[in-house]
Structure formats: structure tokens, C-alpha cells
């Protein structure tokens, strides 16, 4: 069994943060084959700073016992010397506003022992990671555990999770769209576009209602999730967090015949990512306004505006729920190239109200 050590710093220059970022990026690139896949140390450090919405904790799984000072929740603190003996990493995310019964986790094998694509995962690392997740779940009174796995498209079932009581609850397809495939919409089909969530106050009530519906009805499989409670202040907070993370966002607003916002499409870019990539965010149209092509118009408008504002963009990343058999997805119009899938495994039930 490995020893869990907590990383006590959110500094991107901290050796542990850099080492974890390298291991995560290596693991993702082994799956996707894409050089721009992965995460930066700066991005991870920002997550570890936490926010009003969530708290993040990073643990290293170390093979060497030794006396160490204690950190958060009584776990020993990782030292720089320990990095030579790290075999795995566990990133924990604790939602603070909704989903307070939930503990989210990502498990990564350290680059020093990472298996090559197609090789077996090291069972001892997974046993230690799952034991840590169970211990934190009990200690923090968060009985619902959710583990996200990035894997090749059509990958066989994860070898350890079902035996530990987890079941697959949701799966998303991850793909890239080449900018060369984008054709700007006709003038009559263009939607209004705003930057960095600077919404017109007169649009705000309808836009918040659209976000609220998306929070409740966007496909999430059987994941135990509470809808985000959107408000004007919550939207302002989201815009501030985006800016703090070095992000910029384009939002296209789809309107009904009366001019009321009933849908949206987002494209974002982050300063720590490669200049050549952007990513699609939420695409949603209210149920009462579907079947009119509003989603396609909004997405085309958002992508076209993003390429105009960020002309160096060559690829656009997207993650979206797997369509039902025989169904198509709005992104199919752009001939996306699938590169991976992300499967959420879930264990536990909500706490009973006292």
C-alpha cells in the first residue's frame, strides 16, 4: 500500500504541481495522440487555490514511509525529496454550493511508472487511490464518490472500479474540429455575440432562465448532481473566475421570434493554453424553442466570432455527451475527429435528510 501525502502549495512553480501536471499531460496525450492535450501547471495551481464554488486537494501516493509534518485533514505534507518515490496522484474536488454530498476525484499514474498505451494499469496504485478516496469520503461526510476516467474511444471497461462498488454513470465524447472546416454563417443566420459574459441587462432575466434550464436538463446520465442555482451575482462571479483563470469567452445568443434569449453557445480560450487551440463550452437551447435550428446558428456564430477574434486558432476542442444510438449531435455538422472519451464512475448514495 502507498502512503497518501498532501501537496501543501498552489504555486505553479512548486515541484509537486509541475510533476503532477507533467504526469497528467503525459497520460492524456497517450490517450488522444494530440500534442496540445493536457493541462498546465498554472491551470492546476489556479484550481488548487479554490473558490467559493469548490475546494481542490492534491495528494501524492508515495512508496516511502518517513516522518513528516502534518497538513490539511491531518495528512502528511509532501516534500520535494518525496517526489522520487511518488507512484500516483489523486486530485480531489469538493463542490461547496451544490452537490455537497459529492466528492469528485481524478487518479493519475505518475509518469515515472506510467504504463504504455495498451499495458495494464498498476493495481497497487489504484488500490491505494481508492482507499484514500473512501477515507476522505467518510471523513468529509461526502458519501457520493465520482471518478472521471479519460480513455480511448471504445475502451474496455476500467479494470478496478466496478469491483470496488462503482458503476459507470455518464460518458462524454471528446473531439477536435479543424478551423479550416468552419464557414461563417450568412448575415441573416448570425446570432448576437458578446465577450466575457458582458450581457445586456435587459437580456439577463431570460438568459438566466436559459442557464437554469440547462443546469436541470443538460444530459448527465445517472450522475448525482444538483442543478446550479443561477443568479445575476452568480453570473458575475463566474465571469470574474474566468478572468482570474486567464480565460476569454465568446457567447452567441439565440433568440426567439420576439427577440428573447432562448439559447446560447460558448467558445473559450485560456492564456496558458497553446495559441492555436480554443474549446467549445455549453451549447443549449430551451426545450420550447427547439427544432428551429437555433442551436446550429448559435454554435456557428460563436465559432465564427472566435476565429475572427483569435485568428491564430487552428483547432477547437469539444466534449459532449455521447448521442443515443442512431441520433446525431449538433457538432456532427463540423465533422469532428474523436480523440478520447471521459467516463464518470459513481459510488454511494446521498445522505438522508435529518
Helical segment count = 6
Shape: globular
The H-and-E topology, N to C, reads as EHHEEEHEEEHHEEEHEE
Largest sheet: 12 strands, mixed
Q: For the largest sheet, list the strands in their spatial order.
A: 1-2-3-4-5-12-6-11-10-9-8-7
CATH superfamily of the largest domain: Gcn5-related N-acetyltransferase (GNAT)
For the residues shown, what is the average pLDDT? 94
Output the radius of gyration.
Answer: 21 Å
Helix content: 10-25%
CATH architecture of the largest domain: 3-Layer(aba) Sandwich
Within the CATH hierarchy, at the fold level, what is the topology of the largest domain? Aminopeptidase
How many strands in all?
12
Number of structural domains: 2
| Structural class label | alpha+beta
Unreliable residue runs: none
The CATH first-level class of the largest domain comes to Alpha Beta
- The share of residues in extended strands comes to 25-35%
Quote the distance from N terminus to C terminus. Answer: 37 Å
Amino acid at each position: 500500500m502507498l502512503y497518501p501525502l498532501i501537496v501543501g502549495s498552489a504555486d505553479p512553480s512548486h515541484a509537486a504541481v509541475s510533476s503532477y501536471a507533467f504526469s497528467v499531460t503525459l497520460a492524456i496525450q497517450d490517450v488522444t495522440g494530440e500534442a496540445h492535450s493536457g493541462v498546465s501547471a498554472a491551470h492546476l495551481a489556479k484550481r488548487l487555490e479554490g473558490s467559493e464554488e469548490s475546494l481542490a486537494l492534491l495528494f501524492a501516493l508515495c512508496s516511502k514511509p518517513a516522518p513528516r509534518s502534518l497538513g490539511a485533514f491531518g495528512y502528511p505534507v509532501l516534500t520535494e525529496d518525496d517526489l522520487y518515490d511518488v507512484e500516483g496522484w489523486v486530485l480531489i474536488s469538493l463542490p461547496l454550493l451544490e452537490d455537497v454530498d459529492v466528492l469528485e476525484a481524478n487518479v493519475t499514474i505518475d509518469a515515472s511508472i506510467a504504463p504504455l498505451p495498451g499495458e495494464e494499469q498498476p493495481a497497487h496504485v489504484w488500490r491505494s487511490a481508492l482507499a484514500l478516496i473512501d477515507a476522505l469520503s467518510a471523513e468529509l461526510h461526502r458519501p457520493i464518490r465520482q471518478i472521471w476516467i479519460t480513455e480511448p474511444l471504445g475502451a474496455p471497461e476500467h479494470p478496478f472500479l466496478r469491483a470496488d462498488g462503482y458503476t459507470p454513470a455518464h460518458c462524454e465524447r471528446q473531439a477536435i474540429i479543424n478551423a479550416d472546416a468552419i464557414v461563417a454563417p450568412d448575415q441573416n443566420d448570425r446570432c448576437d455575440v458578446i465577450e466575457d459574459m458582458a450581457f445586456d441587462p435587459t437580456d439577463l432575466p431570460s438568459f438566466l432562465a436559459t442557464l437554469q434550464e440547462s443546469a436541470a436538463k443538460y444530459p448527465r446520465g445517472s450522475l448525482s448532481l444538483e442543478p446550479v442555482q443561477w443568479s445575476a451575482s452568480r453570473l458575475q462571479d463566474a465571469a470574474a473566475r474566468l478572468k482570474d483563470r486567464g480565460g476569454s469567452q465568446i457567447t452567441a445568443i439565440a433568440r426567439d421570434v420576439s427577440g428573447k434569449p432562448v439559447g446560447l453557445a460558448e467558445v473559450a480560450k485560456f492564456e496558458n493554453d497553446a495559441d492555436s487551440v480554443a474549446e467549445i463550452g455549453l451549447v443549449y437551447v430551451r426545450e420550447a424553442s427547439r427544432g428551429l435550428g437555433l442551436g446550429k446558428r448559435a454554435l456557428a456564430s460563436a465559432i465564427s466570432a472566435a476565429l475572427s477574434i483569435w485568428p491564430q486558432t487552428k483547432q477547437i476542442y469539444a466534449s459532449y455527451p455521447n448521442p443515443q444510438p442512431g441520433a446525431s449531435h449538433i457538432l456532427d455538422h463540423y465533422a469532428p475527429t474523436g480523440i478520447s472519451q471521459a467516463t464518470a464512475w459513481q459510488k454511494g448514495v446521498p445522505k438522508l435528510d435529518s
